[in-house]
Amino acid sequence: MTEEHDDRGSPADSERGDGEPTVDGGATIHAAVQDDGRAARDDTAAATITNVGGSTRERLELLGVVLVGVLATGMLAFIALDWLRDAPGAVGTVTAGWFAGFLVIGEWADFYLGTNVFRHPFVWRAAATGVLVGVVGPVVGAFLVHRQMALIGETLAHTAFAGVAFGMLFIALGAGLAGGAVAAFGSSGTLLIVALVVSATSALGLQWLTERTDSYGDVPIAIVLTGSFAVGTLVISWSREFVAIAIDIEDFLFGSLAIVTATGARLVAVLSVVVVALVAYNYKQFLFITFDERAARVARLNVDRYNALLIVMTATVVVGAMQILGVILVAGLLVIPVAAASQLSRSFRETVYLSVLIGQVAVLGGLAVAIGASLPPGGSIIVIAIGVYLLAILLSDRSASISMH
Question: Residue 8 to residues 14, 17, 206: CA-CA distances in angstroms?
C-alpha cells in the first residue's frame, strides 16, 4: 500500500510554525498597551500638575484682588472720615478721632522711613486718589483695549483739559451759579466738576460723530483730540487776564500731588464706586459687545446705549485720574496695565484681575518714587507701568493677546 503523507504537519509543528507569529503579535500588542498606559498616566500626571499650578495661580490672583479691595476700602474710609470730621455733634467727634488715627499711622511711617510726608492729610488724599484710579482705570481700560479703542482715553483727556479751561472761565464769572458752586466745592472742586461735564458731553458727541461720519474710525477721534486741546488753550489764554484763582496749568498737564483737594478726592471716590458698580452689573453685556458686537445687535442688545455708557465711564475715570497723572499721561493707566496683563492671562476675567494688580503696582510704586525723589507722579507711574509691561513680554510664552473667542 502506498502511504499517504499528511502535508498539514503535526500539531507541534503548527505551534512551532504558524503559531509563533501569534505569540510574537500578542507580545507586541501587550507592549503597545503598556506603552499607551504609561503615556496615559504621564498625561494624567502632567494635567494634574498643570491644574495644581493653575489653581495656585488663580488663588494668588484672587488673593491679590482681595488685598487691593481691602486697600481701596481703607482709602474710601479715609476719604469719608476726612469729609465727616467737620460734621457737628458726636459724628464729627468720633470721625475726627478715627481720622487722627490715620495720621498716627502716617507718623509711624515717617519714623521708620525717615521722611516727613505721610503725617500730612494731603499725601493720604493723593494716595487714596491714586489707589482708586488704579482700580477703575484698568477695569474700564480692559474693555477699551480689546475693542481697539485705546486712543479714546487720550482724546477724552484732552476734552477734560478743555473742561478745566471752561471751569476757569466759569469761576471767573464770580456770581450766581458760579459763586454758589465755588462756595460749595471750592475752586479746584468746581474745575473738576466742570471738566467732568465737558468731558462726558464730548464723549457722547464723539460717539455721535463716529456713528454718522463716513471717514475712517480714527478720524473723528483725531479731530476731537486736537480740537478740544486747541479750544482749551485758547480759553485759558483768554481768561487768564481776569481769573482770580491761583491754578498752575502744568499741574493738570503732568499731574501733581498738590492739586488733589478734599473735594477732588471725594469726587474720585464717588465716581469710582459708581463705575465699579456699573461694570459689575453690566459685565456680561459689556463682554458680549466687546468680543462680538454684530452678534450682540442680532441678539437685540441695545449696543448704542452700552457704548455710550462705556465711553461716559471712561470720561469720568479720565477726569479723576487727571489730578494724579495729568492730561498728557492719563491714557497710559487705561492701556498699559491691560496690555501687560494680556501677555500673561488666559481669559478676559484674568486680564481684568491682573490689570488691576499691575495698576496698583504702578500707582503705589510711582507715588513712592514721586514722593521720595520729588518727581512728578504722572511720569513716575507710567514709567513703572511700562517697565512691568516689558517684563510681562519677557515672561510671556506668546506674542499675541488672549483669543477673541
Answer: 8, 11, 95
Burial 79-91 (b: 16+ CB within 10 A, else e): bebbbebeeeeee
CB atoms under 10 Å from CB of 309, counted, come to: 16
- Domain 46-84+120-395 of CATH type 3.20.20.140: no
Cell numbers 479731530 correspond to what residue? 223
Are 161 and 236 a contacting pair, CB within 8 Å?
A: no
- The rounded Cα 258 to chain-centroid distance in angstroms is 24
Of all residues in the chain, the percent with pLDDT exceeding 70 is 77
23-65 pLDDT, tens digit each: 455 555 455 445 555 554 555 544 444 455 568 888 888 999 9
- Kind and range of the H or E element at 178? helix 177-212
pTM (whole model) above 0.85: no
The domain ranges of the chain are 46-84+120-395
Provide the pLDDT for residue 151: 82
CB atoms within 10 A of CB 341: 28
